[in-house]
Structures are given as structure tokens and as C-alpha cells.
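hi! just following up on the protien thing from before. the input was this:
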Amino acid sequence: MSSAQLPGAWGRIFLPFALGYYLSYLLRTVNAVISPALSLELGLSASQLGLLTSAYFVAFGLMQIPIGIALDRYGPRRVEGSLLLVTALGGVAFATGDSLTSLGLARGLLGLGVSACLMAGLKGFAMWYPPERQGSMTGFIMAAGALGALTASAPLEALLPLLGWRGLFWGITACALLASAWIFISLPDEAPHTGEDTLTAALASVAGIFRSRDFLRYAAAATFFTGGFMALQGLWVVPWLMNVNGLELAGAARYLLILNLGMLAGQLAMGLFGTRLARSGIRSPTILRAGYAGMLLVELALLTDCLPLGLAWCLFGVFSAVNSQSYLAAAGYFPRTQFGRVSTAVNLMAFAGAFAVQWGMGLALDGLQLAGHALDCALKIAFGGLLAVQFCAYLPLLRVKRAPV
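and the predicted 3d structure came back as:
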């Protein structure tokens, strides 16, 4: 059944998915604002803070392959609606946690619970919207995620003195319950049709994807560009602004808001102009190369402080919008019937990268400070290391052949 056959399709289909992805992105980035309070209350080191925050990415990433298969078999309504109940459980656990272990487990539950939010939305759009609207719907749901990131900046920083970080997570729990109920009530109960594809065959097809050179080329970029951006946005931007640029938390939260506004603008632009660019012959690989080149230049400007601070963080957010094109670019080398599995495989690599970069930067900061470097210097060295790795991941994209499908 297409969206044209569903009365009120925007409210019945898009908005429930948008709320889920909004919540997913809010949870991904919320620790950037609450990290000073967490560190103070629990006495966390930089590496412990990085490990705690990255537990979300570990759980999220481990779920991607099962999610891809489950969406094919059971449909987005049942998969996302059920997992958002796990999100609510994780919110309760985080709001009541009192140690690194309990909060880490709660953070993992949160990552598991929202692990289907984007992929379920993309699958639902493929089921219930006509093909010519896929690009726009993808851009718009990514914009909903950007709104979640916006919320997890200056607005949450303003609420923090009133509610505390525990109160914020009680609110997040209520939002997760609302999103789950909306999905179960609103979405059509229609699972996609996958024929006689067995679990063994599904796993074999996933293994084939990971062996493909075409997939691995984009996987490397997703790991360090998409994953690196998530690691910075979700945690290390605020410590950078406070220690390298000398801002207070409120000022750092405002620049995080600017970053997220830039990301929102970029995602909306992708939604509005993506179809037009494709029709003119400018496809996902080209957009991806141009956007990643822009990210590298802006990161270099941040490292060398050669652009106005607000402009640099805004541009970083704008260029990050091309991360969504990695799903389409990689999927172009595989049959359309494998779109869900290819996109979740790309997502797995992105979240593995977010975990590695987020925790790895924490370890690097602790080690560099033990070696006698001041925190601002240690942050610059760690950031420069990420920039170098991203440049190496960018080079294979220059040799991309045209996708056969």
C-alpha cells in the first residue's frame, strides 16, 4: 500500500518515524552537554567518560545486522515500536544509575533501543512512498535527527539547572513511550515480502556485502567521517570549545547549537535539492567526495584557528549532511533487494567508528596529559590524528567506479 492510498500519510507515516529518529539523535549527542555534570558527580576521567558515552555506539552498532534482517522479515512497525520500549527502559536505568557500570549498561540499552529508528524509517518510506519521493523523505528524516541534535545543545543546557541530568532522562523516557505508542497505533501493520529467503541465506548475503571491495571503500569513509563526526558532536566538541577556545559551558553549548543548525540546513538542502541533483547527473558518490573534502578543509581550519569560530562550526555541520549519501552510494553496487542489509552494514561501520574515535580520543587525552601535555594541547594532537586518518579514508573515494545498478 502506497502513501497515496493512506489518508493523512504525513501524520500516519512520516511523523512517527521522525519522532523516533529525533529521539535517537538526541540520545546520541546528549552527553556532550551533561558530560561536565557527569564527570563532577561521578569523578570520571576522560577515558571513562569516552567509554561511557560510546557504550551507546557499541550497542547500536551490534544491532545493525540483526535489524536489517528483522526489518525485511517483520516490518518497521513491529521492529521499531518494540525497540522503543527498550529505549524507555534504558531511560529509567540511566535516570536512576549511580556508577560507571550502571550508567554504561543503561547507555547500552538506550543505544539498542533506538538502533532501528533511521533504518526503519528508510524501509518504511520504501514500502509506503513512491520511488520519486525517496530522496526527499530521506533528507527530511535526517533533518528530524538534526532537530534532536539541536535540542541536545543550548536548549538542554538551559534546562539542566532546572531538571538536572536525571530529570532530563525521565523526560526522555516519556518521549520514548509516546513514540512507541504512536508507531503501533499509526503505522500500517504490513511486513515486507521477502519470498523464501532463509536466515542462513540472509546471513550469507550480508557476508558477501562485507567481502565486496566496493562496500569496503565506502565503509572506511563511513567509519572515520560519519563515525568521527558523531564522536565529536556527541562528546568532544564541548571539551574542545571549553579548553581550546576558553569558553564556559553556556558558550560552548551555543556553538554546539550553531554546529547543529548547520547540520539541519545541510540536511534540508539535501532533501530539497537531492532529486534535482540526481536528475542532472550529480549522484551520491560525487556529492560524497565534495562534502568530505569540505569537512577536511573545515577541520583543518578549526585546528589552525584560521576561520571565525561560528562560521567554522556552522560549515562543519553543513558539510556533515553528506554522510547520509554513503548509504545510497554503497547500495548502488548491490541489487535493490539488498538495500536494507547494505544500509545497515554501512551504519554498523559508522557506529563502530564513532565508538573507536570517541573512546580512542579519551584514551589519547589521558595518555598525552600523563606525558606532560596540557589538555588544550592534547585535544589538538588527538584532533589532528583524526584528521590524518580521515584523509587516508578519503583517498579510495577518488578511485570510485560507476555503480552498475
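The chain has a mean pLDDT of 86.
The first helix runs from residue 9 to 29.
cheers
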